[in-house]
């Protein structure tokens, strides 16, 4: 609006978006997203990677509207704005603080920001304004949570924001050296925002430590609704982001000596000071068409909770998974010979928006999905045999696992599942498809640098994570079948699992000696799952010995169907059916083991 382009910036996903809007700017932002991929994943918002995907799609549409030359011209001369990090600091870090101290988490955010901006530069962006993280600790919600009785600004979130901002500013200088034709400019909003909050009366506000909605201390998103009372005059409350942006100008105006030409006029003092502040991005004059891509992932306290910090020298381009029903994401769906299928309700009750049975043996996502999420590769891992699998998915990973498979070939034969040897055959077929898609060299890179869950060194795998056997004797079905009247844990089955795990760990050490260029890592899932089952109340669950489906004692696969009653709240249960944990448990498991083991792939 200040640039005189148009009154509102439309959302890119707006159903009735006009083609003409593409030429003058759109918004890819998603509330609740952040630099930490899990900030978006947990809240089902569009992550930065997804927004880049939409931007790539946008480029194709723009070329269709104005032609390739004009589209390239628009992209090269547009203003791109990125603002993120607030949700990560405000919400996600509280959970991640057990694994990361402030410098480590700041580095995690910085790596994500750098990767995003690098990709944006490669896609043709040349003028990018990157907003700093705001003083999150001074938000009313953070004051309430961490400001004590006096409701002061919470120091820890602000310290994290300042640390991140210092590192971000340095990183942008590095990016400018790597992309000499681009201008990646750091926009400090921390300082002006903090000044407005602390000295709100100087700016004409009457209240600076509470919000206008409800009590102003905790209300946000759903808690701020049509039933909440609001303050008589919103202008009395610190809520004007624009004033903050105008204040931000003062840090940069001294650098500006030439007005910015926009269309047929000049962007002078009549325009918002922010845009004058951004003039460092442009030469003395601009082309007649200025496009603003607001990738505003603004600090937004609407979202909560929990990425794994990948070391700088660790690249994981894809995840390839082999195994059984714990990992299967739908490969058995069209295998009519097996009963080990669950592509029907109530399976998938909470997957991707709910009531979406995809063949995953849980109410939602399974470890395959959660690992690929933790790595920041994509939101879920598709089944290799999914008839709707897109070729582009091959480059970032697929799942070959089949419910009912096992190390013993007879296990797969009995259940008519895809055996491990059959899964290896699918992997060989996958390599052929990948070569045709991305070429020999890129295929070799993907195969050598991907993270595998099973053993396939001979086919080129170099990073292989092998999960231990879980405490099978604790699953509800085994308690019912072998735990006696009291349904105790089936000890002999757990002992067999422990014996196998001990030998597996030693065997992987031996394989690492024989194959020094590989990293075959034993992942202990037995103990963390056992701890959740035995101490379920400590983790916030109410039921640990029965599943949510039916009686919870025997129902699995065909016995757990759309005629079977469900528990009122699966978040209170460790198990979904009589064999498989709920998505909630899987999330706890993957989050706990990811930070512990990923560093071993260095």
CATH-defined topology of the largest domain: Rossmann fold
- The strand line-up of the biggest sheet is 8-7-9-10-11
Number of helices: 20
What is the CATH C-level name of the largest domain?
Alpha Beta
* Average pLDDT: 78
Corresponding CATH architecture of the largest domain: 3-Layer(aba) Sandwich
Number of strands: 13
Helix/strand/pairing class, anyone?
alpha/beta
What sort of overall outline do the alpha carbons produce when their principal axes are compared? globular
GO molecular function, one term: lipase activity
Family: Belongs to the 'GDSL' lipolytic enzyme family.
GO biological process, one term: lipid metabolic process
Protein name: GDSL esterase/lipase EXL1
Q: Care to describe what's here?
A:
The chain is an alpha/beta fold and 602 residues long. The chain has two domains: 19-190 and 257-296, no CATH class; 319-601, Rossmann fold (3-Layer(aba) Sandwich). It is built from 20 helices and 13 strands. The strands form four sheets. It has a five-stranded parallel sheet with strand order 8-7-9-10-11, sandwiched between helices. It has a four-stranded parallel sheet with strand order 3-2-1-6. Residues 239-307 and 453-457 have low confidence and may be disordered.
